[in-house]
């Protein structure tokens, strides 16, 4: 394997730093260049140990009708036949440009809803409630998120469950939380589904 030059190593470091700063701007809604973010995101994921979708794919039945919320490059479509791709900013072919908090679909039509690194707000309650609305009875919600964004896993699960789900499986390691939730009845008191922003730490 060819070693990287010092210049390339410095460029990689600058790209990683810029990606973290753009992440912070996006989560805190401070304004950002989404095209540049997507380009840097594609560069960064090549360096990750694995992507949540690597695990999520194995959780989904092959014949399921799936909605991929915040789909990015629409990876799930490469593995399953029946996928509706939703992303507000993606320019990939066959992606519906829509916010996950206001979906253009009728109630109860999907078998599986997936959020893979795509809960982009601090308060994500509206997006989770929309997933609940468009899922079939007994449908499955799968959330894959960076572990550092979750203050307390137990509390996060409790909040998601209050919107009308029951966690049936999970994978937790030092990188990610991946939770699989079954759609049931909503609680009388819905709790906000909060995630911490990815804040860039200056060194």
TrEMBL record:
Major enzyme class: transferase
GO biological process, one term: rRNA processing
CDD domains: AdoMet_MTases
Key words, A-Z: Methyltransferase, Nucleus, rRNA processing, S-adenosyl-L-methionine, Transferase
Main location: nucleus
Localization annotation: Nucleus, Nucleolus
Superkingdom as given in the UniProt entry: Eukaryota
A Pfam match: Methyltransf_8
The keyword Nuclease is annotated on this UniProt entry: no
InterPro entries: RRP8 (IPR007823), SAM-dependent_MTases_sf (IPR029063)
Similarity comment: family membership: Belongs to the methyltransferase superfamily. RRP8 family.
Function noted in UniProt: S-adenosyl-L-methionine-dependent methyltransferase that specifically methylates the N(1) position of adenine in helix 25.1 in 25S rRNA. Required both for ribosomal 40S and 60S subunits biogenesis. Required for efficient pre-rRNA cleavage at site A2.
Name under which the protein is recorded: Ribosomal RNA-processing protein 8
Organism listed in the record: Anncaliia algerae PRA339
